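Quick start: what a row looks like.
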Amino acid sequence: MLLILVIFFVATILKYHRRKVAFNLEKLKADFGQLDQERERIAADLHDDLGSVLSAVKLHLQRVEARDEKSNAILRFSEDQLDKSVNTLRRIAFNMMPGVLHRKGLEEALKELINLMADASAIAVNVQYKADGISHANAIHIYRIAQEMMHNIVKHSKATRASFSISKIKNRVELRIADNGIGFDEKLFINKSAGLGMRNIKARAEVLKAKISLATLPGKGTHFLIKIPL
């Protein structure tokens, strides 16, 4: 009788734990879904509304005739600042939610993201993509993971070379990201007090039910392998 009670008690705890894990996962999915929708809305507003206003202002400035060299210099400076503002606006909108992800899919979005960040940092990046058919919902999470990792490489790794590859292998997608930088202590990634970027990577991997493998040592570069079940 006691054994039956113990089994029942253990089974109840396990059932409760599974329900709690499933609930937390669904909540995490919903939170990311709302976050990505809001990012998409703000990105569209920035690009379509504010971007159009700035472009219209530039057109009006170009129609102004300068009376003297000083006025001409002011106009040129104003146009230059507007161009910089428009470029900054486009970069912010792209970082929030790239339109190319909707129009052309994950492959083109990743190539555009990596090329932009690599050009700004002078890091040579090799990109390989062999994973067609990824759902749009999963593509957003994979894109955000790659974005966070590329940001970390540019900001912290001091690398000169990096590689990104996405491929389908049987019933999963594998995302491999590596660099030849200074590496870091693996405990910083495992530790719950890891930075916001690392926490976002792990949270999105959890939504994808993905497994993350990490190989890194100080001075030896970093290699991430993320296995995402289909």
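That is the whole record. The longest helix spans residues 2-62. The domain at 101-229 is CATH 3.30.565.10 (Heat Shock Protein 90).
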